[in-house]
Write a structure and sequence with these properties.
Strand content: 15-25%
Helix content: 25-40%
Shape: globular
Structural class: alpha+beta
């Protein structure tokens, strides 16, 4: 009976896993926060490299000034490429589409396009500052699982003045969150640089996908 009681104790859903959280404002809490941010940036930029982009450290070494976006559809099933806007040393601004199959020829944009684009980025490409927070109380119930939401995700990258930037925007987080205007503008610049495509401001990311996502080749009999 004692053995059965022990087994039931371990199997009971009321038994909670113990966590040890660093105190608010401690060096460990700050270190954990900064490590998490660095790992998130590495993850985001690895996705760019896997999608066919040159690594940002290489862009910085070559003193190239770029802003880039990588799009993921709501079900993460389509091989959607990304877009890169570059500001050249002579003042020229170009846009190109980059994917696993290679990159398109750069298309020249008006100089004002760069100024407008960078005015939209705000602080989405810079690390968030550390703000101490209270660790969760051990006697609080576990939070419920988040609701399922399928929406677009857009990753960002930047290189300028030997500084690397990283960030992201998710449609499930709400339309008014920082990053949406920047993501939409990146999609618009790419689509409108392609004469055979039409940009739809009501469905900006589907516009990009429709224009640039490779279509499967029909099998030959």
């Amino acid at each position: 009976m004692k053995l059965l009681a022990v087994l039931l104790t371990f199997a009971s859903p009321a038994v909670r896993e113990e966590h040890s959280y660093p105190p608010k404002g401690s060096g460990q809490q700050r270190a954990d926060f900064e490590r998490g941010q660095a790992n998130q940036a590495k993850f985001e930029q690895r996705l760019f490299t896997e999608a066919g982009f040159k690594p940002l450290p290489d862009m910085i070494k070559a003193k190239r000034i770029v802003r880039r976006s990588l799009f993921e559809d709501p079900y993460m099933m389509l091989p959607i490429p990304g877009v890169e806007v570059e500001h050249l040393s002579d003042g020229t601004v170009t846009v190109r589409v980059v994917g696993r199959a290679g990159e398109s020829e750069p298309v020249k944009l008006p100089a004002a396009a760069w100024r407008h684009l960078t005015s939209l980025e705000g602080k989405i490409l810079t690390p968030r500052p550390y703000v101490p927070w209270d660790p969760p109380k051990s006697d609080l119930p576990s939070p419920p699982p988040p609701p399922i939401c399928h929406g677009w995700i857009v990753r960002f990258g930047a290189s300028e003045n030997a500084v690397q930037g990283s960030g992201s925007w998710a449609q499930c987080g709400g339309k008014d969150q920082p990053g949406m205007a920047f993501a939409v503008e990146m999609a618009r610049l790419a689509v409108e640089s392609h004469p055979s495509c039409k940009f739809d401001p009501t469905n900006p990311f589907w516009s990009f996908s429709t224009c640039f996502t490779p279509r499967p080749t029909p099998a030959k009999n």
